[in-house]
Design a protein that fits this description.
The chain is α/β, with parallel strands linked by helices. The protein is built from 21 helices and 19 strands. The relative contact order is 0.09. The model has no long low-confidence stretch (mean pLDDT about 95).
Amino acid sequence: MAESNIVQDLSDLANLMRIDSIQMTEAAGSGHPTTCSSAAELLAVLHFHESGMHYEPKNPQNFASDRFVLSKGHAAPILYSIWAHNGFMEKEKLLTLRRIDSNLEGHPVPVLPFVDIASGSLGQGFSVAAGMAYASKYIDKINNRYYCMMGDGETVEGSVWEAAHFASTYKLDNLTAIIDINALGQSGFTSLKHDIDVYVKRFESFGFDTIVINGHDVADCIKGFEAARKAHGSGKPFAILAKTEKGRNFGAEIEGSPNWHGKALGKLAQGAIDNLKKMIKNPDVKLTPKMPSFQAETPKDATFQLPDELDYDPKTPVAIRTGYGNALKRMADNDPTNAIFALDGDTKVSTYAGVLEKAYPNKFIEAYIAEQNEVGVAQGLVIRKKVPFVSGFGAFLTRAFDQMRMGTISYTKVNYVGSHAGVSLGEDGASQMGLEDFAMFRSLFGTAIFYPSDAVSCERAVCLAANYQGHTYIRTSRPVTEVIYPNNEKFEIGKCKVLNQSDSDKLVVISAGVTLLEARKAIKKIQADGKNVALIDLFSVKPIDKEGIAAVAQKAGGKILVIEEHFPDGGLTDAVATSLGEYGFKIFQVCVDDRPKSGKPHELLDKFNLSAEKIEAKIRSMI
């Protein structure tokens, strides 16, 4: 086909996709047709010209295919239109947009096989695309490419520049950012409007090669994508900076107007459709994407194991967090699908993720001090069939809560490990202590949460997390503590450990981590006086062992004391109370009930009534 013909065909296709976007949002009564319109030519060229993506429409999950991330997820209608025009789904289905019985949601989610990640919380897609690009370049070593379209408004988000730094640092020349610079946000003009030179300077300052194009000129779009494809081997990521207009070809009242974000066109819809039809020379245009030039086998899912017998000396105290690094290394020793990876935000010495790096440097990814991007990159690895662990101080993981939240919508399986949690951290002070982490992770749908109390239980928690089909969180602690479990002890998701129980218990104490060890010391002194108190290591915070705890509590008269290094709300006490509400138990709490400060670990534990001595006094007062 002559080049002039393909340009016209792509232009026609772009306008047909605009019509689809109008009709879909009219049927739904809501949506974002104007933001679809600004991206039409860019996406038509990307998906239907050889300069753009090489992919297999009938098999969206082909592991060799180029991949596209629509970070500006509110442009979902035009994405769905693409996959109707390439033959994957029937065009009639487009009119089910946003319906309760449709999987064409208002923002894309990966219930659709051509969608890898949920988008719509702006500024996150580029990190995910960077993680996918990293996996292809350095892990799977295949030559596919990744494209991420962002709106100009979302490039104000700091997470975009965390991702840009990562992409440049790791020379991701298989990654292209497409910036749809239409100068309009939700409520008005963007801060830079159409000042394209600023975008050029910003991306180039982060180590990108760039090209500026007219995003509505098909020939210019082809030029841009050809330049991006030639970037392979340059060692630099690429950015296409496209000047566009929101509501392009919708008519003078709509095009470039700041008043049409998130609105169906209503009474102006038919006029816009009529205007678009006048521009289309071939309404029956059909274009076929270019297929991948090679094949790549999708990695198989793996099951991970630890030795039945670990190797801790019960006489030698060791920090709970050491179990994290040791477990990663042991699982990596037997990892035939090369799935286990660790990412860390410049805290690998503290979290012990460095143990994996020392043994297997290629299985460790330094994410630097950029937790939002760290989580996004991990989600990209999950999409490429890896099992990543993301570690850092529990306090700092809170920065990436929205990325984690979106990850649950995306059905990704990322394992989080927060170390140095609790006041037992000591002298570093309140900013480092992570006293809100359980509240955050408990709120994430489908997340399993583990709270190990020694290195043995920590290793077992890491292995359980690796095999769990969903997000997980493991809280680890800084202090060097005793090893309380045998090296062959088994642990289960949703099961606690009953450390003390008798037929004459007057109280059940529930705890985990450092405070469990303090409670254990306290109860030993109380038992020496002939008084019995049950002690439960909660271990599995979510799902919680409702039946197991209830059985112990019923024998102890229904009185429970929860002891935790967490602020009052959202932690272990809330987990216990929420799960056991139907039983009518009396539940009491000892926690961090004021703002902490620097001090020796034992001083801080004592200040907040979490030391063995204060716990002993509390228990005696209750029995």
